Please model this.
Amino acid sequence: MLKTSPLYSEHLKLGAKIGSFAGWQVPLFYTSILAEHKHCRKKAALFDISHMGELVFQGDIKASGIEKAVTPCLEEIPLGRSRYGFILNQAGGVVDDLLVFKIKSDQLLFVVNASSEAIDYKILKEIISQGELKNISAQTAKIDLQGPLAKEILKRVLSFSRDISYFSFVEFGFKEEKILISRTGYTGELGYEIFLPNRLAPFIWRQFIACDKVKPAGFGARDILRLEMGYNLAGNELTDTITPLQAGLAKFINFKKDFIGKSALLEQKDKGVEKTQVAFVAESRKIPRPGYKIYSAGKRIGKVTSGTYSPLLSAGIGIGYIGAKYKKSNYPIYLEDNKQNKFEVQIVDLPFYKKGSIKGSGLKLVT
Amino acid sequence: MEIYFTKNHEWAKIEGNIAIIGITEYAASQLGDVVFIDLSEIGKEFKKDEVLAEVESVKAASDIYAPLTGKVIEVNSELDDSPEIINNSPESKGWIAKIELSSLDETQSLMDKDNYNQYLQTL
Model:
């Protein structure tokens, strides 16, 4: 039985085409994937991301032993800020990627993927020797507002005008409830992730939708937006047999602390990785799809994990893994689709799209 | 001029011994935004139900089958740069290929507009 978000009936009212993702019924698109992508890059798009998991830890961080479960140093996160990192297995493979928010010196919010929420909870629960861990996912909705107009729209709709810097958040009282607004996202644009109790979600959602510069966007557009930025997707780029070093995410590992999987990563660092992530642009609009094989000079060297069509580059784009020895800029590779048709791609550096408003102050609303 | 439809949601307009081929409104809306089309080579011969072209939307890659046996004499090369024409005008400007038919008899196995509309009701 697939789960539904508290906004499910809003999606139906907006004419969404519904699909499934990580055990949830989610909106794939409302009008057109490409139109929604464009609206996010040019104005602002609203996403229902309520499927994601939220785990709250309350207690003495150091004494609880919770540091061992994740790669970022929890003690060092300043209040009101968040960090990206991982829960790894002993072999250094990725169990999940997550954001950790430091709400109080003894309170953390872990935002995790829906598909790994249960296993993440179990791992954290087993590691802590004291303190309390609560899974608040079922009561918590999440609405993302993303795009160059996001700041102005937030101001108008929620009468919220405080500046929030990138990877910071504030808690905000609204109708006797608490809303957490974080300046993060998965699109490469200026934007906010808004965590709120389920019962407030439909009201807030409708308030945003009523703003003429905002359009709802589904999971189809979200996948293009994240891929244009080269953001990894758990389950595709990040799995329990891929390490963050192979995924090119070493900067999110704090080797000064102890964590599960550290010794495996140190060994990999020392010996070098056997396979490594690579990003590529197709010479046509053909989409590199997950599972397509990557070849070089007649030899199969890896496979595609994510791919889509980038409207900004007017080309197919993708990410995959290849033997590390093959990764050089301009190294000639090509792909083979499921029908053994070959097509040319060019290795490039990430992100595919470099002009997003993510770190800027955005555009002013013109009314 | 007659127009026929297939269960795979292709249409074929017959003009003399030429068939203009495309996909239906229904197929286009099911695919969503079309971003790429792999057109067949001019001069290539296809038997009925062989893969004539491939259409990719963001969601999926789908085969387009030859509704009738014949030889490709023209493809809609505008689709190379503007595949969205398929979404905007699937049953007119978004035509995919023109085929010189081997025989007109095969049209008997296809549906007319009314039968196709009835078929859509069953999906």
